[in-house]
Write a structure and sequence with these properties.
alpha+beta; 4 strands
Length: 64
């Protein structure tokens, strides 16, 4: 499990990204509270790292 942390709008953000058997996933946290998990079939761990970074920078949004 890899962890990226950041801050946006006064909120503490954390993204845990990891590889799976068929791709990768990310768990998203705001102020220490679990918000959402997304699984990406057929994507690489590098893709997950990029998506997690984009979320921390406010580029990627979480839908649902």
């Amino acid at each position: 499990m890899n962890v990226l942390m950041g801050e946006n709008g006064g909120q503490s953000l954390k993204a845990e990204y990891y590889g799976t058997e068929n791709g990768c996933g990310i768990r998203f946290f705001i102020n220490g509270e679990f918000i959402k998990e997304e699984i990406y079939e057929g994507k690489s761990i590098h893709w997950a790292e990029s998506a997690a970074t984009n979320w921390l920078e406010g580029i990627k949004t979480l839908n649902g």
